[in-house]
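User: Hi! I'm working on a homework problem where we have to compare a predicted structure to a textbook description. Could you give me the structure for the chain below?
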Amino acid sequence: MCTARCAPIPYDVLTGLNKSVVPNRELVQSLRKAGLLRKDVTLYHHYRGRRSGSRHPRRSSSPYSTGRHLKDISTSNLAFGLLNVRSLNNKVDKILDLLRCESIDVIFLTETWHDATSVALCRLRAATYTVIDRPRPRDLNAAASASLHVNHGGVAIVAAAGVKLQPHVFDITITTFEFISARFQSTHGNLTTLVVYRTGPLTSLFFSELDNLLSCISVMKEVLIVGDFNIRLDRPNEPHTRAFTKSLSSHGFALRVHQPTHDLGGILDVVATRRSLSVRGMDVIPVDFSDHRLLRWMSVFSRPPPVYKTIVSRKWKQLDLEKFFMLIQSNNSADIDATDVDVSASQFNNVILSAVDQLIPLKTARVRLRQSDPWYDGECRVMKRRMRRMEKRALKTGSVSDRNNWRSDQKAYRRLMRSRRDSYWKETFVKNCKSSCQMWRSLNHIMGRGKAPPAHSISVDNFLEHFTSKIDRVRAASSDAPAPLFPATPMSARLNEFRPTTEDEVIRLILSLPNKQCLLDPIPTWLLKKISLDIAPVLVRLFNKSLLSGKVPLIYKSCYITPLIKKSTLDPTDVNSYRPISNLSVFSKLLERLVLTRVLEHLDQHNLLPVHQSAYRRCHSTETAVLRVSSDLLRAAGDGELSLLVLLDLSAAFDTVDHSILLRRLEASFGLGSVVLAWFQSYLTGRSFSVRSGALASSATSLTCGVPQGSVLGPLLFTLYTAELEEVIKAHGLQCHMYADDTQVYGRCRPEHTDSLAIKISRCVDAVDRWMFSSRLLLNANKTEVMWCSSSRRSFTLPTKPVRICSDLILPVRCVRNLGIWLDSDCSMASHINNTTRSCYASLREIRSIAAPLSIDVRRILITALVLPKIDYGISTLAGLPSCHLDRLQILINTAAKTIHGARKYDHVTPLLRELHWLRIRQRIEYKIATMVYKSLNGHAPPYLSFAHVTDVPGRRRLRSASRGFLLTPPARCTTLDGRSIDVIGPQLWNKLPRHITTSSSLASFHTALKTFLFTKSFPSSQQWS
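Assistant: Happy to help. Predicted structure tokens:
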């Protein structure tokens, strides 16, 4: 049969899209003779992508699958996919199922409709996928001139674990479409991909910008261009189509899609490559959650090999405690009571390990890491197989009833998967509802947030080299430093020996330990808590031997250093993105806690700690530190003065502490001597560490300087090491506050004396730098921030000249983040409110995405643990702000209440708040400030937050307010500035409280009475509660 005489064949018949049309053999033979069909493929198998000679045709693995050419595709090749998903936000489970069933290694998504804090991307990352994205901004009035602010649909690249994917940035401005680019690394070479989404009218500017972008990318060897250009490529005679194809061909690219990619017809999605790049098996697969079809193809780039993991574990739940104690008692030789503490500690560990190895020996298993959901069980597998069989039958027979049955099985499978997922989430949160920490861990696990690096991200040897070289650089910079001075303490303030510990103290410390385990621990912490009564006598003998002899067991001086990423947005392959954290043995931490308790008692008894150092001290916190600094800034602004705030930063502060200088300061400045000083000398010398990431560990390295981050005593030792810094700063007539290595220096002046204040600050920082140089520390001027502060009326006249910090000139900024609280130059706290609402709404979106199966009680626990603490942190600094600022936080609280109850947007929120017993935002602020005043008056607050009674002032005893316990209120010039400081608003609020509240006998009773009073104030019509 001649091709020219053939009648036109409908497209749906030719491709098999019309399932009711059964292809006949005569038509197949005619198409073969005409050259319209391969000789070895039947029409039905051409549609399904199978060879006719295959004895065992491929079983489809997806409800969307239409098959692929098996023998044309090597299983080692990389599988790509392209899909216009039309909102990724509620289709994550379908996308994950599609990726796994279709065995797609990399999928390009357009029209994702996601923002920068998308929950959908978090869940994709939780499933071990790598995601590079460009979000769609929510701002409808964003400038159209910047590429990152075009309000289109959003694009993303999702790659399976093991695919080496890195973002690629072009220095070019695009305004008519959005795009992202990435580079794949493979044994066959590198592949640069470009993902594009375009919408709106076609203009000449689009083709001009497209040519510029293609010119930049065409210089690369292997290039893949994909996306949704919204150009009808099936209409080659249209001007826009001709211009588009001409632009591609002029740069050497050819189109690879020749079938309709939309349910209504038309080729809108593009896959374009150079002809040298092999693209095999271009399948157009319909999906049931988008009007676009999935494009799937293979390339010669190698697929990542399977990942195997060796698991070494014990079955701790099967441990027989009675036999365990019998073995310990039988093996408990006299070596535990030996004179040498090293021998005793080693023998104690060996006895425990020997008993554990005998009862529950280590078992090794090598498993392949597969991407599967934890809720996917046997019933889901059975339902999936049934759906696959029905799919095969429907595609084979083409009958309408079989197709309907297939669709019904698809819906049943989706419902079952959703039910299993919801049940898993509900059980997870109900199980961990008693602990806010566990709730955070559960949510982070579901959302894919983790601090530990993947096994392939960084090399332990590279991190070890980076860690040691960084310390060596800091130490080398101060190698010729002069010897520091050591101010002496009175002879009465001496601590020469530790008091022995008791069984009750050791048991109390064991029960207070978090349920964490280090690889150096012979038994997990939860098991140690169970046997605490039986093991405490042995630990008391061991710890007392260490405390009285002044020697730390050598086995307690080794640790693992785990790299923890500083921020989730940092590059996980860069060693600079990680912070070293020490993992110590649980017995070492118990011994350190005993020492910490005794040293703090000595320091508090003799008032040896700096007044304005708030780190790791009882009744002190980051919130009290920032409250003191912000109140001082407000008082200065209220007096019509300007303040200059400098936030100092140190380089590797904890890791570069000099041991000899630290020991001399402990003896001279803090009165530690004899056995106590010998114990600390033993604690610091002979330490070793190794870097561990996953199952990989570096060789052991000696630690000659620094205090371990993650240890119990490390923070206190660093605080004592830098205690003299406060006197250095005060010698220049400036104020300061410190929290560990975070130091804030600030001063105030009249508007005409700003230059002299800047010079004073510079000289003070020079003195601080000299002191740090002599102490072998290094001030990081590049990360130091400077900010001028005053009222909003003077904010436009604040100095803009740079301030000299050491040898660098630092430009003043408009806002700074100080210990997690944002401070503005105009004292408005607008930046803090903005960042708080942004963070809380992101958390609410995450909770809302998993809230459907959860009960109201579980939702309340989730939001109380994960959202409300963000609102309450630093809330005392918002006192006195106008309603236009606080209303944003109140709306946030209302949204949280509606999320708990599943209420609609316009439902009345007052009944919901009353049912939850939540205070409104102003009452929450009053609650926090009143609690701070109560703690201060009863000795449970830092000394820098103090208030005076009216009776404490001479001449005020005869006033009526003296008998009511009123506090003295300092004068304030401006209610919106110094009237907002804790020194003014604290006494004002306290004096308005009823007498029965201010005279409460305990903090618990004060909280109950205060909340009852404020709740009645928030909801006057409601009844009191307790």
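For your comparison, note the following. Confidence is low (pLDDT under 50) at residues 1-25, 31-75, 140-151. The radius of gyration is 34 Å. Good luck with the assignment!
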